[in-house]
């Protein structure tokens, strides 16, 4: 790693820590112009910044808004690097493949977005389906990407049955044995996760990363 690259990585890390999405974007554009490896810039710069904020949040030293803003800052940089990665056919070393979304009937996404960013920072390949996602969409994307984990969020109590519906649809599609299911969201409890047959449950983004690592390894 050259000193030039190290400087770029450190500037990206600090910009994320300072929650400055505009500066992250500017530094990322500079990195592209001088030929810095975009995958390394994500792993050694952006991801390290997000993980630091995540650790502080877990320790009670950072607020949820800071974690959200750090995620937005990282995404600003990734958006700059993504076209270069695709053009060069580069590939990050993937820890695992995840399909994630908020279940049908629920349009809340802050928690889901934070989990997605933290997973991406940890090296997972994340396929974010967004909100109000039908069970069939989870199935289709899982088949398409050969994902190892399907992650579903539900904030509203009335939408938690959609998590079970999605698991049932995954089973009917014949791919249940090939994937692990993780659930979370304000309306979800460990008891509900066990009742519907999910392999994992987490109530925060930091613990979710460790959970997903264990699910991929199991």
Task: Report on the architecture of this protein.
59% of the residues lie in helices and 10% in strands. The chain has helices at 3-17, 21-33, 38-58, 64-88, 110-121, 135-145, 161-172, 190-195, 205-217, and strands at 97-102, 125-128, 149-153, 180-184, 200-201. The chain folds into two domains: 3-88, Orthogonal Bundle (Methyltransferase, Methionine Synthase (B12-binding Domains), Chain A, domain 1), CATH 1.10.1240.10; 97-217, Cobalamin-binding domain (Rossmann fold), CATH 3.40.50.280. The protein is an alpha/beta fold. The protein contains nine helices and five strands. α1 (3-17) packs antiparallel against α4 (64-88), α3 (38-58) packs antiparallel against α4 and α3 (38-58) packs across α5 (110-121).
Give keywords.
5 strands, 218 residues, alpha/beta, Rossmann fold, 59% helix, single chain, 2 domains, globular, Methyltransferase, Methionine Synthase (B12-binding Domains), Chain A, domain 1
Describe the structure in brief.
The protein has 9 helices and 5 strands; from the N terminus they run ααααβαβαβαβαβα.
